[in-house]
Each structure stands twice: as structure tokens, then as C-alpha cells.
From TrEMBL:
Binds 1 Mg(2+) ion per subunit. The gene is panB. It is found in: Cytoplasm. This is 3-methyl-2-oxobutanoate hydroxymethyltransferase. It is an enzyme of class 2 (transferase). NCBIfam families: panB, PRK00311.1. It comes from the Bacteria.
Length: 265
């Protein structure tokens, strides 16, 4: 199997082939997603929400991200694996940023890191890139800054914020980032960004006129039930599938139907 590389992702943009990306946090799921042919797996700090049950992405630690990432890397034969550097492990200190990126690459075997922000984190981005580690940017709604925003609503609706986002995207491209995630911004702005830079733009809640899409795996599989933003398309209802299977199992155990004659030694 031919592994996905940053070079191939760039070629996909160049020839207009869309990039399909999903999050993954564990070995078993990552095997399924990789086997299904996903291009990029993101070990997102959304693990803080969907795996650990925290309200925000802020509490997850670098050690916890490395644990998730190494589980995913072991499962993957083809996909390109990107890992979020968690809150508090890069902001405002480029040598700490570099140290965090190197720990992720060394201890998990992942292929790239992702960081939230533009001009604010320029030095860290440049320093990590200089060490030969590919960096994916992340602009728009950046959940690590949720307490600055105050809400999870659409970002960059106003001209000033839209202009800064466009400038940040160009800056990240100039620094040498191989791709940028745009989260929850107007589709027109996302289109403008995807046209203004030559690197692949991956959207989540950013419309169709970008170079690829990403969703949180638990959301698109219908494992999470309450989270229903407009951009989310559910491809399965695993909440119901699992509930039905577990109810059936409980019934069988209580009814002494499981295990049967063939299921024992
Ligand atoms: O952590 C995450 O899942 C993400 C995606 C939503 C892009 O950063
Ligand atoms: Na994230």
C-alpha cells in the first residue's frame, strides 16, 4: 500500500481531488478508518471531549495526546497521521513548542502536528518546520481559545476578523505549513482562502469550496447524540446500533440464553 504524504496531498489539491480526513484516537477505530481508505487521520485534541468527557479541549495533556497518537499510528498502513499539539504546550514559547512537537513525533511515530492560530504562533511554527516536522495550521473557530471567544458560534463574519484570517492563512503558507484547517467560518471566506493560497485547505463547517473535509469520527458515526451543528452530516446511528446490541446481550444473559451449548468449552 502506498502511504499518503504531504506531497500527495498537495498534488490532490493541484488536480482538484478532494481530501477526506477524520479524527481517530484509538487503534481499533483507526484500523477501520484506514482500511476504508481515509486520506488523513487527525489525532485531534477533541479527544478531550469525546474520549475523556471534558467540556473543552483545554485539559488534555501532551502525554495523553501521545498515548492516543501512538495507538493510531500502530493501526495505520496508508493514511497520513496528524496530531494536535495540546493547549499549553506551544503558545508563546517557541522552544517549548519545538520540544512538544519533537516528543509527539518521536514517541508516537506520527507524521505531522497541528496548531491553532496565525501570527500569534508564527515563531513556534517556523521553529518546528525548521526541525523538519510538517505543520498543519488551524484558523477560524479555534477551540483552545474558547474562553476568549466565549461561544462556539461561526467565526470571521465581520470584515476585520475575515481579513486577519486571510492574512494568517497566507502567513502560514509562507512559513511553510503543508495545509490549513478552517473551522466554522462563512463558506465564501473559506473559498477565498482556498483560492488565495496554494496549500490544501481542509474545512469543517466551512462549505464545499475548499480542498478537503474533516469531521470528528464520533459525530459522523452518530455515537455522540446531543451535538447537532448544521455542518454535521451523520453517516450512521451507532448510538442506536450499540444500544440495541447491548440491550440484546443483557436480555440473553438474564434469560440464560447466553452462552449456549456451542459457546462453551
Ligand atoms: O480536534 C479536532 O477534532 C480538530 C478538528 C475539528 C479539526 O481540531
Ligand atoms: Na483540535
Amino acid at each position: 500500500i502506498k502511504k499518503v504524504t504531504t506531497h500527495q496531498l498537495q498534488e490532490m489539491k493541484n488536480r482538484g481531488e478532494k481530501i477526506a480526513m477524520l479524527t481517530a484516537y484509538d487503534y481499533s477505530m483507526a484500523r477501520i478508518l484506514d482500511g476504508a481508505g481515509i486520506d488523513v487521520l487527525l489525532v485531534g485534541d477533541s479527544a478531550s471531549n469525546v474520549m475523556a468527557g471534558n467540556e473543552t479541549t483545554l485539559p488534555i495533556t501532551l502525554d495523553q495526546m501521545i498515548y492516543h497518537a501512538s495507538s493510531v499510528v500502530k493501526a495505520v498502513e496508508r493514511a497520513f497521521v496528524v496530531v494536535d499539539i495540546p493547549f499549553g504546550s506551544y503558545q508563546g514559547n517557541s522552544s517549548e513548542a519545538l520540544r512538544s512537537a519533537i516528543r509527539i513525533m518521536k514517541e508516537s511515530g506520527a507524521h505531522a502536528v497541528k496548531m491553532e492560530g496565525g501570527s500569534e504562533i508564527k515563531e513556534s511554527v517556523i521553529r518546528i518546520l525548521s526541525a523538519g516536522v510538517p505543520v498543519m495550521g488551524h484558523l477560524g473557530l479555534t477551540p483552545q481559545s474558547i474562553y476568549k471567544f466565549g461561544t462556539y458560534t461561526v467565526r470571521a463574519r465581520e470584515e476585520e476578523e475575515a481579513q486577519k484570517l486571510l492574512e494568517d492563512a497566507k502567513l502560514l503558507e509562507e512559513c511553510g505549513c503543508f495545509s490549513i484547517v478552517l473551522e466554522k467560518i462563512p463558506a465564501d471566506l473559506a473559498k477565498k482562502v482556498a483560492e488565495a493560497v496554494s496549500i490544501p485547505i481542509i474545512g469543517i463547517g466551512a462549505g464545499a469550496d475548499v480542498d478537503g473535509q474533516v469531521l470528528v469520527m464520533q459525530d459522523m458515526l452518530g455515537i455522540t447524540k446531543e451535538f447537532k451543528p448544521r455542518f454535521l452530516r451523520r453517516y450512521a446511528d451507532l448510538y442506536t446500533v450499540v444500544t440495541d446490541a447491548v440491550s440484546h446481550y443483557i436480555e440473553d444473559v438474564k434469560a440464560k440464553d447466553f452462552p449456549n451449548q456451542e459457546e462453551k468449552y
